[in-house]
Amino acid sequence: MARARNLKPGFFLNDELAECDPLARLLFAGLWCIADREGRLEDRPKRIKAEILPYDDCDVDKFLNDLQSHGFIKRYEVDGKRYIQIINFKKHQNPHIKEAASIIPPPPEDEPAPEKHHTCTVQEPEKHTENPADSLVPCTDSLKPSTESISSSSSKVHSTVQGTPEAKVEATANDDDDDDENPYTFYENNFGTLSPITIEKIKELEDNIGPRMVIEAMKIAVLNRARGMRYVETIIRDWLDHNIRDPSQLEAYERNRRNKSSPAELENRPKEISERDIAAAATYIEIELNEFRKKKPTGEQLRKFLNSSKFSYPDEVKHKAFERLGISKYLEGG
Question: Does 160 share its domain with 210?
Answer without folding.
Answer: no
